[in-house]
């Protein structure tokens, strides 16, 4: 799993009715985009995360200008 600053980290709910937890990666602490990541979640909480199998990285779209 590799990420860059600005990507979203999504922790999927583990039980029925539990919502996904979405945060923005604000710092990559591993080498070459590897975990751990410092993540700022929607509620303002920040934490260090080493994603597990219930987590996905949503890469931000890079807009190029001509």
TrEMBL record:
<dbReference type="InterPro" id="IPR015035">
    <property type="entry name" value="DUF1918"/>
</dbReference>
<protein>
    <recommendedName>
        <fullName>DUF1918 domain-containing protein</fullName>
    </recommendedName>
</protein>
<dbReference type="Pfam" id="PF08940">
    <property type="entry name" value="DUF1918"/>
</dbReference>
<feature type="region of interest" description="Disordered">
    <location>
        <begin position="42"/>
        <end position="66"/>
    </location>
</feature>
<feature type="domain" description="DUF1918">
    <location>
        <begin position="1"/>
        <end position="57"/>
    </location>
</feature>
<feature type="compositionally biased region" description="Basic and acidic residues">
    <location>
        <begin position="55"/>
        <end position="66"/>
    </location>
</feature>
């Amino acid at each position: 799993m590799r990420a860059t600053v600005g990507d979203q980290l999504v922790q999927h709910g583990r039980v029925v009715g539990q919502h996904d937890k979405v945060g923005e990666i604000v710092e990559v602490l591993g080498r070459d985009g590897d975990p751990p990541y410092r993540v700022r979640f929607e509620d303002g909480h920040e934490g260090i995360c080493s994603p597990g199998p219930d987590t996905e990285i949503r890469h931000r779209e890079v807009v190029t200008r001509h």
